[in-house]
Design goal:
Helices cover 42% and strands 24% of the residues. With 189 residues, the protein is of the alpha+beta class.
């Protein structure tokens, strides 16, 4: 694979292309522009004068501050994905482990609301709960409310852990510091 960079006489790159052979014709350049060969992938290259009246392609190395910001951005994506996964898996409750994907959280929230309404009305309330071990248990209004609080606290603690990790990422001043951040730290068991 061969790469090519289209640029003007000041070295301003306007287009990259690649070809499977150096014998294939390249698209014509507009007036004032030319193609300079480079290794593929071409998008990693810029051009500079070669000292002999022509140009040479050189590997683009971003400045340190750009590299640091890219590392921070990538680490945050990784941390946010981990946080979102943790907030949507399994939560320990006093009544067994609860599945807490988005649909399950909506169902739990609905039953907790019904339990709260029944409690306010002074009505009896009992609804089955199926924890991860698939042994169905009937829970009272108070038990459902306790289950809802356990799920809510779990999600809140996951959010807090993610916020702490985000602050660590933002405070990092070196690539090594970003790399050393443990995105799994501080989450509830």
């Amino acid at each position: 694979m061969f790469g090519y960079v289209m640029h003007d006489d000041a070295g301003n790159v306007v287009q990259y292309t690649e070809a499977s052979s150096d014998l294939l014709p390249l698209p014509p350049c507009p007036d004032g522009y030319r193609w300079t060969p480079c290794p593929a992938p071409a998008v990693n290259y810029v051009v500079e004068p070669d000292g002999a009246g022509g140009f040479q392609a050189v590997l683009y190395v971003p400045p340190d501050d750009v590299l640091l910001q890219r590392a921070k951005d990538a680490k945050w994506v990784e941390a946010k994905n981990y946080r979102d996964m943790r907030m949507s898996t399994v939560c320990s409750t006093p009544f067994g482990d609860a599945q807490i994907d988005d649909v399950s959280k909506i169902k739990i929230s609905g039953v907790v609301q019904m339990a709260g309404f029944a409690k306010l009305a002074g009505s009896e309330f009992s609804e089955p709960f199926t924890p991860m071990d698939n042994i169905v248990v009937d829970l009272s209004a108070d038990q459902w409310i306790a289950l809802g609080v356990a799920v809510g606290m779990f999600v809140s603690n996951c959010q807090k852990a993610g916020t702490i990790i985000r602050a660590q990422i933002d405070a990092s001043s070196t690539l090594d510091a970003v790399s050393a951040i443990d995105i799994t730290a501080g989450y509830p068991a």
